[in-house]
Amino acid sequence: MAAPNLTPQHVHHIEVRGVSKSFGKKDVLKDIDLSFGRGQITVIIGGSGTGKTTLLRMLIGLEKPTTGAILIDGEDIVPLGDTAMNRVRRKFGMVFQYAALLDSMTVLDNVAFPLREHTSLKEKEIVSRVTGKLSELGLENVGALFPSELSGGMRKRVGLARALMLEPQIIVYDEPTSGLDPFTTELVDEMILGARKQHGVTSVVISHDMASALRIADQIYMLAEGRLAASGTPAELASGKSEVALRFIQASGVDLKGSRVQQRE
Q1: Which of 6, 159, 260, 261 ranks highest by number of CB atoms within 10 Å?
Q2: Given pLDDT bands bounded at 50, 70 and 90, which one contains residue 4?
Q3: Residues 85-92, mean pLDDT to the nearest whole number
Q4: Residue 72 and residue 88: Cα distance in Å, rounded?
Q5: Is the dihedral of CA 42, 70, 17, 75 positive or negative?
Q6: What's the DSSP call for residue 187?
Q7: Which residues share a beta bridge with 42?
Q8: Cα–Cα distance between 263 and 235 in angstroms, integer?
């Protein structure tokens, strides 16, 4: 079946319309409406058990909502079968929480994996592309190393390099700063900002890290108990108009006076 005639410049790259998800009698998400601007960084934030991971799985078609629609470039992916969904997934790159690198493979082989699996490129071209991408991300001369020999921040960058190899339109980051020290967290934040600037990708960040969200986001959606509890720009959420957002920020220990939020206002 031919791909539908889509509008490349659809203002919202991703739209979530009236989405609910239940597992048996448990309601995980309840009537969620979200929009993700093309080329923007959108952070979905919330504590454990708020439905963030379920939402992520639905965005990339690994779960179907119980009700509602999810539009990618204006196309509702909910009714799509496996073949059509595989076409849509080519628009996505994933950076997993713990990088999900294969320990038995070198860095070069980890990053080359998507090209070897999904293209017919010759090995010389694959190695050239991988080397170039690693260099772009400040990872020169690490291709022969194994993941166990890398720092946490370096593993994240290798994960991003792999995610970018098939030139996706959308990068999804699953808890990218989880378990990292403050210095490495800031390096990962810069990596996300740099990927957007350099490649023009739409970025979806699933996180519980409010300080990071305030630094990198164009738009923040906050989930609580499966519902959309607050939304807005970092400055809007930090303004105190949303009591739920302000409580989350305060509980996170974020110093608003010294944060990037104040600098952007």
Answers
A1: 159
A2: very low
A3: 93
A4: 8
A5: positive
A6: H
A7: 204, 219
A8: 10
